[in-house]
Amino acid sequence: MGTAHNEAELGQIAKTVLMPGDPLRAKFIAENFLTDVKCFNTVRNMLGFTGKYNGKEVSVMGAGMGMPSIGIYSYELFNHYDVDAIIRIGSAGALQEDIELKDVVMAMGACTDSRYSYQYELPGDFAPIADYSLLEKAVGTARELKIPVKVGNVVSSDVFYNGYTKANEKWASMGALCVEMEAAALYMNAAKAGKKALAILSISDHILKGTELSPEERKVGFKDMMEIALRLA
């Protein structure tokens, strides 16, 4: 039986799910990279598909924008649909000078300004980190494909239009590679459920340099990130 946000039945979703933010990107991946595709969710237009990549079953589903949204969908996938691993594939804004547009960043850890972790009633701050086995395999896959990647800390922010104008400067000064809006919640949900998660990010804009990709350039730039993620399934 489905949930309020996902109409899939048990068994219709693969053990590994790729999660772009945009449900239309999930549709694009399903149509262009997978075979034997079946749509398992259309609720709220948060499209989800299961198909095969190189003969192995994999699902792809939109996550929406921000930690509340990916928090709902990833929680249900881990806890209601028995998904073992979720790989976020999304865009991010660079915070370091040596990172360029279209670069691929793998989030070893995810700093955050969110209070998402309050629900766990921990006696301190939780450090959301990627599953090491997924991260190690992703880095190895990138090397095989000759795709350069940067691995390190990212920032998952609750705020896109931030009134605190020095926020990105401060995170950059601590070595954060880029800023996005979902990874920390995904990593916390995975930790609580005893499951695996990894965020692979493609740089769509540079916060400090003020440069950005056009919508068309984003599609091309995201190809490397998608290929790495698909090979992890």
UniProtKB/TrEMBL annotation:
Enzyme Commission numbers on file: 2.4.2.1
Catalytic activity: uridine + phosphate = alpha-D-ribose 1-phosphate + uracil; a purine 2'-deoxy-D-ribonucleoside + phosphate = a purine nucleobase + 2-deoxy-alpha-D-ribose 1-phosphate; a purine D-ribonucleoside + phosphate = a purine nucleobase + alpha-D-ribose 1-phosphate
GO molecular function, one term: purine-nucleoside phosphorylase activity
Top enzyme category: transferase
HAMAP family, per database record: Pur_nucleosid_phosp
PANTHER family: FI09636P-RELATED (PTHR43691:SF11), URIDINE PHOSPHORYLASE (PTHR43691)
Record text on subunit structure and interactions: Homohexamer; trimer of homodimers.
Its job: Catalyzes the reversible phosphorolytic breakdown of the N-glycosidic bond in the beta-(deoxy)ribonucleoside molecules, with the formation of the corresponding free purine bases and pentose-1-phosphate.
Protein name as it appears in the record: Purine nucleoside phosphorylase DeoD-type
Organism: Oribacterium sinus F0268
Name of the encoding gene: deoD
